[in-house]
Known about the structure:
Strand order of the largest sheet: 5-4-17-16-18-19-20
Shape: globular
Bound molecules: coenzyme A, adenosine monophosphate
Radius of gyration: 24 Å
CATH architecture of the largest domain: 3-Layer(aba) Sandwich
CATH class of the largest domain: Alpha Beta
Largest sheet: 7 strands, mixed
Structural class: alpha/beta
CATH topology of the largest domain: Rossmann fold
Amino acid sequence: MSGFDAVYRRSIDEPERFWAEAATGIDWEVAPATVLRDGRWFPDARLNTCFNALDRHVEAGHGDRTALIYDSPVTGTVRAYTYAELLDEVARTAGLLRDLGVGTGDTVVIYMPMVPEAVIAMLACARLGAVHSVVFGGFAASELAVRIDHARPVVVLSASCGIEPSRVVAYKPLLDAALEEAAHRPGRCVILQRPQAPAALVEGRDLDWASAVRDAEPAGCVAVAATDPLYILYTSGTTGAPKGVVRDNGGHAVALHWSMSHVYGAAPGEVFWAASDVGWVVGHSYIVYGPLLAGCTTVLYEGKPVGTPDPGSFWRVVAMHGVRTLFTAPTAIRAIKKEDPSGNFARKWDLSMLRYLFLAGERLDPDTYHWASDLLGIPVIDHWWQTESGWPIAANCVGIEALPIKPGSPTRPVPGYDVRILDSSGQECPPGTEGAVAIRLPLPPGNLPTLFRDEARFTESYLSRFPGHYLTGDGGYLDDDGYLYVMGRIDDVINVAGHRLSTGQMEEVIAAHPDVAECAVIGVADELRGQLPVGFVVLKAGADRDPAEVERELTALVRERIGPVAAFRRAVVVGRLPKTRSGKILRGTMRDIADGRDYRAPSTIEDPAALTEIADAL
Ligand code: COA
Ligand code: AMP
């Protein structure tokens, strides 16, 4: 049997056989004899991820196939790299890193905009068995500093600037400020100079990327243990300190390679475009590693869905490069829909090559689903996953069998994921009943084995709540047909324009303001971005301040400390926060009010009028 049910069942009943078969899609230096031991996949195998993404395709005679298309409406550039050309660039960049003292197991921080050198940098690290940590460009200097101090990179790779439609973002001053703030000192910074804003280099510390790479000798691939880390990707948790999600080499390569054909139905040579950013997990998995492991052509798009220059830019890219699979966040589609509700821009382009639109990163609302599917006339597929998993947990696996779509659901758990809905006592909820979405261990290959330098936080965050299960942090339910419905986070994480942010972290920043006595930040439903953060603040006694001025100071503070990506634009001064008599802030009830759900003040509430004040402010 090859239908979805049969494949899924086999993955759960015989995980070792299932993933041993999938592992044959990868070229190993030492093939796995053991498939799973103590939750770690392929513990005795050795490989190099870069070899699998590039060299093996060139060796198989596909060196002339296009590996990467850089399409940058913000600079007016379109440039293609064949597999042979990309390999050459990566090998020389790896040579430079090696000359700068980067060895196997060393960390390298990459703080770059959406340029080919960002992809080259990631693969160059993988080539040496070094561990990259990419930091998203929309984060502030302090966030970069926190990551530099935690990852302790030997080298930082960066660029002089990124380009947002409304402004050039000078990265180098942000990097300089981060290095001022950080205690850790990397040996070198290698800076890609972009003509839009060339940067001053610090003598003795900074190197010019182009000339340094030009002079470097190419480096070969260094095989590492399958369980060795490939990268660290910091993501928002419930507190100010981000979590360093670790990805291993072997499980990751196997899972991503398998997902390209089985989840996305993509074949070698096809054009696959994930319209995301290399700073997020979608960028790691489906701009860089997944498509290249599978021998596809990947598109690196430096632009936005709207405004670069118009709401037809996604359709232009699809038509111009023959994109077969497009992956983006629902927010991007909502942004296009808002500016071009009748889809006139889409009709200007030949979209006949496009076979699937995959959406993830936040809940796909049925309106957006229907709009996109009516416009494009192709399957629009919601799928659900997270930084920790690295690849989809629930999806309509069109490469196995396309199942009927139910709007509002990312379809069924993907093979390898034994998804359970648990109530607060850890009992399984019957179909239709909402609970915590958990995954029975073992997690399939590709999922995080730990948090970088923080095994205790890994156990505490994910494994201790329900023994034998991984806690996803999302709430939801399964229906009678086994379809999953993800209803939203059950912790302090919010999703703003498909970007994952921590309200707890914003609260820490706001609480540091000298006039703030206490505060609560919640995510409020927003038509375009899905959610937006809103802060409620109580001022210290005697702080006689103009609320509008306080709001201005607090929004500036969050922008400065966390970054523009937080999109923190509303801070409301209130007389008190709704709390229980024991002093716990009623964030859940506040969220219910914000989302327009029915709410009832708990019997333990200290002062019911505080809730009315929140409702009035919203
Ligand atoms: N570097 C520097 N700044 C960045 C940035 C980056 N890489 N990405 C975003 N920012 C800035 C923006 O310029 C904006 O700054 P502003 O406050 O000065 O306007 C701020 O961060 C907020 O960004 P965003 O919420 O993305 O707003 P936007 O107006 O730039 O774009 C959308 C709105 C909907 C077009 C955009 O959010 C989008 O394309 N979303 C799709 C999400 C996505 O791809 N998610 C990845 C997961 S799949
Ligand atoms: P990130 O780690 O940035 O990928 O964010 C992961 C979180 O985004 C998940 O835990 C969910 O809360 C949310 N998310 C991602 N995809 C979906 C989806 N398809 N439907 C609902 N929520 C989603």
